[in-house]
Amino acid sequence: MSQVSLTEKLVAIVRRDALTTIRYRNGFLLSAVGVLAEVVAFRYLAHAIGPAFRPEGVDYFPFLLVGSGFYTFLITGVQAFLSTVQEAQQTGTLEVLLTTTTPAPVLIFLSAFSAFAGKLANLVLFLVVGLLLFRVPLLHPNLLGVVVIFLLSLAVALALGVFAAALQIAIQKGSAVIWLLGSVWFLTGTIFPVGALPLPLRWAAWWIPMTHSLTGMRGALLLGRSIPELAPEIVWLFAAALVLVPASLVFFSWVLRRGRSEGTLSAY
Amino acid sequence: MNAVVFNSVTKRFRHRPALFNWLGRERGGATEALQRVSLQVPKGEALVLLGPNGSGKTTTLKLISTMLIPDEGAVAICGADTLREGGTVRRKVGFAVANERSFFPRLTARENLDFFAVLEDVPKQERGIRVEEKLGKTGLAADADTLVMKFSSGMYQRLGVARALLKNPEVLLLDEPTRSLDPGSAQRFWPFIRQLLSTGTTVVLTTHNFQEAAAVADRIAVLRRGELRSEREFQRNANTDLPSDDLSSNEPANNDGPSIDEVKSFYFQASGDAEDTPAFETAP
Q1: B contacts of A265 (beta carbons < 8 Å)
Q2: Exposed end of chain B (fewer CB within 10 Å): N or C?
Q3: Is A268 domain-assigned?
Q4: How many CB atoms lie within 10 A of CB B119?
Q5: What is the ipTM of this complex?
Q6: How far is CA B133 from CA A35, B97, B197, in A?
Q7: How far apart are CA B190 and CA B194, in angstroms?
């Protein structure tokens, strides 16, 4: 029986990651500048396209802001977690972490959670700057809907992060998950609506979790859709989380056992 | 009671050449890192593993720590099987790995230890005291708030020992623990280990240093190419006063065990390695 609670362990991991991030002083500032530059670029892109283009019934700038901000949050969260695992492999910390009394699946899930917590600050900055600086009116946001869509999307992204970590340990190529997610971005409705795609691509887009995350988040935040109206996205994301979270942990445990057997935990 | 038991343990590392191996010359097959090794370490004793590079010393430690699992045979730590009861084993074993970079470089020594103490389930009320105690014992108290990226190799090595001691392990694994220490610190390290043994901790240590083996060992095992060539118990004088348990103290090493020559002669006999064979070829 563990004498330290999961919350204490999560706080320790988040603290470790936060201290590491802020101690890369220039990198911290540069990422904040990057966020601002991206918001400004989107503002002028939307201005150039003109007010007539209103995908899914909203102005193009908030459409871009929410789509790109949320998609980037989900992808960079997976990427940040994968980087943590890769660095731990290269320094030999991974092997040491896996011999602590904290079970490996717990450790890996908390570490993934911490990676997303770090990227949440970027997302909030991105949205706050975009919405406040360029005075985007949020007429009636459904905050409960925002939270539900956010949490379900997070659960799915955490699972994808654990899959990436498992692939990294198994074949030293966890980046394959990032590559896959990065190469389907145009299907997910990040910068133009899924409805603009040809039918076969719309069908492919339906299978990508981020499509439902973005549709749901825009619906809740920008259009104020109610929970019943968000039901298709909520049900899809819930089912995906239900399958992917345990599957990713089972896969990770299997990979870990294989790594212990073959001595490849720190191979990179 | 035996704290560590190896029962006919074999460990193989398979080589998997790349898909287009004809472009290079990567080897295939497998390396037998350990071959049917059986050994026991009684509670409170120190086993020193000697052997040339690639003989299986670190593999032995990794098998005890559950970083690796055996292909054949079984490893038991204080009665718990490493394959079936990995969690129980991890609660009992502390491992100071040889890799000096296995810390978070942008955290201080104290922050690193505090982080690992949480993961090692050290209760909150004890954590601060435990971390300070281990920093003090390893002579790092003055550098506790320095980022570890600024540490020297020797300081990393001390921190590694401090981390391994955090959970007050029943079995302490030390992989070449004095490799990067200055001679004075290394001399003070050996009585520190003897003191730990007197509290009932079992120690398994790998080294290439005969002086270290003589200063610490209750028994020595010699490995070569994955085979256990020989194992011998050495009598130590039980009445010798125990030295300080502080790595930073100035007490000299007090060798109450075998002489260095005794260890040397045992090693060269057992390993079949001629004492005068140079490790590197010299120019004619």
Answers
A1: 67
A2: C
A3: no
A4: 22
A5: 0.86
A6: 44, 20, 18
A7: 6
Q: Which residues contact A25 (CB under 8 A, 6 or more apart)?
A: none
- Amino acid (1-letter code) at residue B212: E
What's the per-residue H, E or C state across B122-182? CCHHHHHHHHHHHHHHCCCHHHCCCEHHHCCHHHHHHHHHHHHHCCCCCEEEEECCCCCCC
Cβ pair A99:B68 closer than 8 A: no
Max CA separation in chain B (angstroms): 65
Print the domain residue range for A13: 6-262
In order of their start, the domains of chain B are 44-100+169-271 (3.40.50.300)
Does any domain span residue A19? yes
Does A18 fall in a domain? yes
- Mind telling me how many Å the CA of A246 is from chain B's nearest CA? 20
- Global confidence as pTM: 0.88
Which are the contacts of B99, defined by CB distance < 8 A and separation ≥ 6?
Answer: A91, A92
**Is A35 part of a structural domain of the chain?**
yes
Q: What is the DSSP letter of B17?
A: -
Contacts of A247 by beta carbon, 8 Å cutoff, 6+ apart: A159
Q: How many domains does chain A have?
A: 1
Q: What are phi and psi of A9, to 5 degrees?
A: -70, -40
Task: Kindly report, residue by residue over A57-97, the tens digit of the pLDDT.
Answer: 888 999 999 999 999 999 988 998 898 889 888 888 999 99
> Nearest chain A Cα to B127, which residue?
A4
Residues from chain B contacting residue A13 (CB–CB below 8 Å): 115
pLDDT in tens, B211-220: 999 999 999 9
